[in-house]
Amino acid sequence: MLTTLYWFHQLLTRSMLKMCEDYAMDFDVVFNGSKSKRIVNRPRRTHDCDVHFSVGGQDIEIVDNWPHLGHIISKAGDSKLDIARRRRKFIGQANNILCSFGKLDCNTKTRLLKSYCSDFYGCELWDLSDVTVQSLCTSWRCALRRIWKLPYNCHTSILHVLSGSMPLMDVLCKRFYKFLCS
After folding, report:
1. Using an 8 Å Cβ cutoff, are 65 and 86 in contact?
2. Do 59 and 94 fall into the same domain?
3. Dihedral-angle region of residue 67 (phi above 0 means left; psi in -120 to 50 means alpha; beta otherwise)
4. Cα–Cα distance, 32 to 167 (Å, whole number)
5. Is residue 72 part of a domain?
6. Are residues 156 and 84 in the same domain?
7. Positive or negative: CA dihedral 60, 121, 82, 130
8. What is the pLDDT of residues 63-110, one digit of tens each?
9. What is the dihedral angle through the alpha carbons of 121, 125, 128, 130, rounded to the nearest 10 degrees?
10. Per the structure, how many domains does the chain have?
11. Cα(1)–Cα(45) distance, rounded to whole angstroms?
12. 87 and 54 in one domain?
């Protein structure tokens, strides 16, 4: 059954690519096959086969992950790479705020952190039980501790009360819930 679905998916993909090529021919549009990428998620029980797709006469490259609309889509179908990239970006932004505005008071730096470093667009689609989300939340708490010049072992609840901010996990859950209800 899975093998049949796999082959049906290939047939469907070929027909969609054919429609794109027909559209390009009718409306004098050129598709650049070298800019197209393909991520293959195979069911466990299907055998590997060398299937090639092409558009505009160029083969579409198979990749394990690829950025699309600001998010990293991976072969595994999880969001680990996307969350890890967002975490690295956040750490860089937080460090930039601490270096550039180090002489400002803690409340102002906290407001800057919330305004300029909390652009977690697309977090509504993340698996919030993933361990990489916890590492992002840890980085958020570390940034708050550095802003408020608190020791590493300062309790989290004190940290959030002092800074007047919700825990990042609560913010992410709230965004997920709003997305789910809309």
Report:
1. no
2. no
3. beta
4. 44
5. no
6. yes
7. negative
8. 889 888 888 888 888 899 999 999 999 999 999 999 999 999 999 999
9. -100
10. 2
11. 10
12. no
Question: What tokens does 68 get?
Answer: 């699309």
Q: How much is the pLDDT for 179? A: 94
pTM listed for this prediction: 0.77
What confidence tens digit (pLDDT) does each residue in 125-140 have? 899 999 999 999 999 9
Is 11 among the domain residues? yes
Alpha-carbon gap, residue 114 to 26, rounded angstroms: 49
86 and 165 co-located in one domain: yes
- pLDDT recorded at residue 50: 63
The Cα–Cα gap between 2 and 123 comes to: 31
Q: Could you tell me what percent of the chain has a pLDDT over 90?
A: 47
* 115 inside domain: yes
Residues 94 and 157 in one domain: yes
What pLDDT band is residue 40 in, cutting at 50, 70 and 90? confident
User: Does position 44 have pLDDT exceeding 70, yes or no?
Assistant: no
Asked if 144 and 95 count as a contact pair (C-beta separation under 8 A), the reply is no
Q: Cα 84 to chain center, whole Å?
A: 8
Q: What is the CA radius of gyration of the chain?
A: 22
Q: What is the domain extent for residue 33?
A: 2-63
Same domain? 59 vs 88:
no
Burial classification of residue 160, based on how many CB atoms lie within 10 Å of its CB (0-12 exposed, 13-18 middle, 19 or more buried):
middle
